């Protein structure tokens, strides 16, 4: 969907146009602009006094959530600079803008959110999954590295099924993430979850990764 700046600007000049009017899903024009990366349109809307920059849609997702989910760094920065936007506001599933940035692997948006105020980087959703869990589950190496650098993130925190970020990374074959997590002293291979057979799969995969790490550090062999 294209962002027609000129058309939006003309419509905003009319008194019979409501710039904050939601559609059947509760999404306002600002939410649509944020979700599709139309920064210029979003800026025009935010200049209008009748636009609520933090209005959630029917799923509880705000314009900031949509911008973070889709990697709109410029718009994330713009929204975070406003006092009428709650940076850690969860949707109906308790998923925050930070969690969505982690889920989608948008490191730029994630950094902006982490640098802001009132954001809990270890806040779980309704399934007990944290931003680190979502990043590990989807193989987002850069995001995992950023989150592991923080003292307020628990690397071995299980979700409601007892599965840790390491368990998710191992199940989905994300060896880069597994290596990052296994490099931590506070991550355990011995944690079990509630899924039949998953523990053995995780141990076997992590063992392969550990062997790979060991081989990488052996150095060149010398043949006589």
Descriptive report:
With 224 residues, the protein is mostly helical. The chain has a domain at 17-120: Ankyrin repeat-containing domain (Serine Threonine Protein Phosphatase 5, Tetratricopeptide repeat). The chain is built from twelve helices and no strands. It has helices at 5-12, 29-35, 39-46, 63-69, 73-80, 97-104, 107-115, 131-137, 141-148, 165-171, 175-182, 198-216. The model is unreliable at 218-224 (pLDDT under 50).
Q: Which range best describes the helical content: under 10%, 10-25%, 25-40%, 40-55%, 55-70% or over 70%? A: 40-55%
What letter string, H or E per element, gives the SSE order? Answer: HHHHHHHHHHHH
Task: Please tell me the CATH architecture of the domain at 17-120 by its name.
Answer: Alpha Horseshoe
CATH-assigned fold name of the domain at 17-120: Serine Threonine Protein Phosphatase 5, Tetratricopeptide repeat
> Can you count the helices?
12
**Arithmetic mean of pLDDT:** 87
Helix/strand structural class: mainly alpha
What is the CA–CA distance across the termini?
65 Å
Biggest beta-sheet profile: none
Strand content: under 5%
Unreliable spans: 218-224
**CATH class division of the domain at 17-120:** Mainly Alpha
Q: Estimate the global geometry from the Cα principal axes.
A: elongated
Summarize the structure.
With 224 residues, this protein is an all-alpha fold. The chain contains twelve helices and no strands. Helix 4 (63-69) packs antiparallel against helix 5.
């Amino acid at each position: 969907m294209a962002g027609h700046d000129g058309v939006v600007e003309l419509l905003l000049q009319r008194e019979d146009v409501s710039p904050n009017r939601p559609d059947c899903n509760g999404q306002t024009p600002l939410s649509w602009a944020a979700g599709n990366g139309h920064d210029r349109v979003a800026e025009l809307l935010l200049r209008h006094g009748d636009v609520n920059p933090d209005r959630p849609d029917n799923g509880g997702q705000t314009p900031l959530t949509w911008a973070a989910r889709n990697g709109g760094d410029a718009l994330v920065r713009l929204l975070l600079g406003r006092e009428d936007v709650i940076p850690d506001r969860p949707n109906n599933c308790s998923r925050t803008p930070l969690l969505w940035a982690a889920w989608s692997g948008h490191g730029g948006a994630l950094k902006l959110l982490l640098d802001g105020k009132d954001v809990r980087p270890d806040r779980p959703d309704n399934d007990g999954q944290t931003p680190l869990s979502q990043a590990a589950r989807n193989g987002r190496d850069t995001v995992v590295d950023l989150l592991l650098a923080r003292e307020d993130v628990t690397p071995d925190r299980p979700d409601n099924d007892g599965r840790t970020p390491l368990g998710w990374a191992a199940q989905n074959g994300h060896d880069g993430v597994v290596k990052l997590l296994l490099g931590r002293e506070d991550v355990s291979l011995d944690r079990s979850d509630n899924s039949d057979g998953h523990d053995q799969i995780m141990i076997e995969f992590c063992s392969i990764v550990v062997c790979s790490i060991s081989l990488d550090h052996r150095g060149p062999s010398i043949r006589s």
